[in-house]
Amino acid sequence: MGGLKPDPVTFILSLLIVLYSVLVSQSLGLAIGAILMDIKQATTLASITTLVFLIAGGYYVQQIPPFIVWLKYLSYSYYCYKLLLGVQYDEDDYYECSERGLCRVGDLPAIKSMDLNHLWVDVLIMAIMLVGYRLVAYMALHRVQLK
Q1: How far apart are CA 134 and CA 48, in angstroms?
Q2: Among 38, 56, 114, 136, which residue is least crowded by beta carbons within 10 Å?
């Protein structure tokens, strides 16, 4: 229907990657909330941060201006998107492309820009983000004085 792999392993891996991304984004939200300790400021900063991460991560824009291209490496959504692409596609796979017959998946601009090799590095980077953001939240809450 959508052209995705229909096997159960791919489905389960996709679910786990999305859950992993939710845990990392929750950790970022905890860190922002613990640092600011004000609901309005934290909500505003979290919304802006998430929007910047989504734009820089490659969900909506593939040609990111050079002066902000480094932001995608700080974005949890970049690594989640890359892992989801890696689960569904292999660079050496082929797909039907209109009248020309078969085209290589690795030749698509969206796949070329992501480099689907070494996906375990992306899993590790997201684990570092998960633990790092939670440590930041812990340290921020630790500095709060009890009244």
Answers
A1: 20
A2: 38
pLDDT digits (tens, 9 = 90+) for 116-127: 888 999 999 999
Q: What percent of the chain has pLDDT over 90?
A: 56
Burial (CB count <10 Å: 0-12, 13-18, 19+), residue 36: middle
**Neighbouring residues of 59: CB distance < 8 A, sequence distance ≥ 6:** 77, 81
> What are the helix (H) ranges across the chain?
8-36, 39-57, 76-88, 109-112, 119-142
Distance in angstroms (rounded) separating the CA atoms of residues 12 and 121: 20
Contact 112, 73 (CB under 8 A): no
Tell me the pTM: 0.87
Asked whether the predicted pLDDT for residue 147 surpasses 60, the reply is no
